[in-house]
Amino acid sequence: EPEVTQTPSHQVTQMGQEVILRCVPISNHLYFYWYRQILGQKVEFLVSFYNNEISEKSEIFDDQFSVERPDGSNFTLKIRSTKLEDSAMYFCASSEPGGHIFGPGTRLTVL
Amino acid sequence: GDSVTQMEGPVTLSEEAFLTINCTYTATGYPSLFWYVQYPGEGLQLLLKATKADDKGSNKGFEATYRKETTSFHLEKGSVQVSDSAVYFCALSGQRGSQGNLIFGKGTKLSVKP
Fold first, then answer.
1. B55 with B64: CB under 8 angstroms?
2. Do B43 and A35 touch (CB under 8 A)?
3. Distance from A108 to chain B by nearest Cα, in Å?
């Protein structure tokens, strides 16, 4: 069964450093998403991506964040200068007519 | 804006007990409604969905009915198993179909004891 994969599973970084979270969506899907879940809180939408551009973004997705689909298979989320409050689980998803298919998540810890 | 409210957890049940997890929503228009499940150490998996009023979604013994009059989508299962222990998330999409972003509730942790 097709699945969304994410790497790394856990990323530890120092405050102020740049991180890139990687995702491989399901190959024939057209819409891609990033969500995050701060420990103990709800899953929050960050951004959606369609046809090689951002289709919608939340107020969380500020200038520190960017997304890219560099090679037709990977879908990346970059955080330019991480803050302590960026520590969270980051989920990638792609969508099919039945609903979102989520990856297993990357746990980002900012020290 | 659109929002989802779930009952607070954790919920602890004995095996074969009846499960209800309440979910209500606020949305303009006609959202699609979803339940996702997150097993320990795993990502979010779609459990069931409903796209219009009075639709019933069902999967693996779980059911939820889209009630527009009460703006609810409560999750039920007649007889839970230990393997159902997980966190359950109610979610909505403001757009018909699956392409819109999802708005989640806070999640309800279910623990089933043998």
1. no
2. no
3. 15
- What phi and psi values does residue A91 have, to the nearest 5 degrees? -110, 130
B43 with A91: Cβ contact below 8 A: yes
- At residue A70 the predicted structure's pLDDT band, cuts being 50, 70 and 90, is confident
CB contact under 8 A, A45 and B101: yes
- Amino acid letter for position B93: S
**pLDDT for res B96:** 53
Residue pair A31/A55 in contact (Cβ under 8 Å)? The answer is yes
Residue B33 reports pLDDT greater than 90: yes
**Mean pLDDT within A70-91:** 93
Position B99 scores a pLDDT of: 64
Query: B66 at the A interface (CB within 8 A)?
Result: no
Chain A CB contacts of B103 below 8 Å: 45
Chain A residue numbers with beta carbons less than 8 Å from the beta carbon of B3 are none
Residue range A33-44, pLDDT digits in tens: 999 999 878 899
